[in-house]
Amino acid sequence: MDRTGIRASYAWALLWGAAFVGLAMSANLLTELVLVDFIHGNHNRPQSNALTMMVLYPPILSIIAIMGVGLIFGPAQLLQAGATYLLGPKYGRRAFLSGAMLLPMAATLTWYCFDYLTPSDVGLAINEGPDWVPYQHGISPLRFLEATGAQVAVTTFTLAYCATGYWPKFRRPLLLGMCIVVILGGSLWGYRGAKIQYEFIDHPSMMKADG
Q: Structure pTM?
């Protein structure tokens, strides 16, 4: 793969990653709305509103996913792509291993972008109660492990996608398999959210207020 192919592979891998995040978020939303509003029953929201959300929100979530993935993982992806780009002419396909070797640095960069380039704390004190404490920026062992886990997932998919540049017949199964995984993951995420909503909807105080 030449240098143009390396740049294209890393760029497309990041775009596909954003698409998968958007797909997972949409599956989460649709699953939660179906379970809460059409199966369980939600006396706090008309079903027409739920249908409107099902139509309008997935495109919005996709845009948010593209922006979020670009801000959080874009710099680390650029770092790994740059190393592969420089080493490619000399080491060939083995140059892609440089992405794995740069994983600690990439994870640190990903943590920094998430911590400082995105609204890490969207909660308001008025909604969080008297014990609410503002989000404190900074690295910690737990945050680094979380960033590393996320970066491992992105780097693994990127390397797998780049490998399909040499074996094109595996690209479609890879993308199809990822779509299935993220839809299932998003659906389970939505099911969990629906269970939480059930407790809120069925709370005696909410039932009394509705009555």
A: 0.86
* Beta carbons of 181 and 23 less than 8 angstroms apart: no
Please give the full DSSP string across 121-134, using - where no structure is assigned: ----HHHH-TT---
Q: Per-residue DSSP letters for 25-86? A: HHHHHHHHHIIIIIIII-TTS-HHHHHHHHHHHHHHHHHHHHHHHHHHHHHHHHHHHHHHHH
pLDDT at 78 over 60: yes
Q: Per-residue pLDDT for 208 more than 80?
A: no
Q: In whole angstroms, what is the distance from residue 172 CA to residue 192 CA?
A: 30
- 30, HSE (Cβ side, Cα atoms, 13 Å): 17
Average pLDDT over residues 83-111: 92
- Asked if pLDDT for residue 128 goes beyond 60, the answer is no
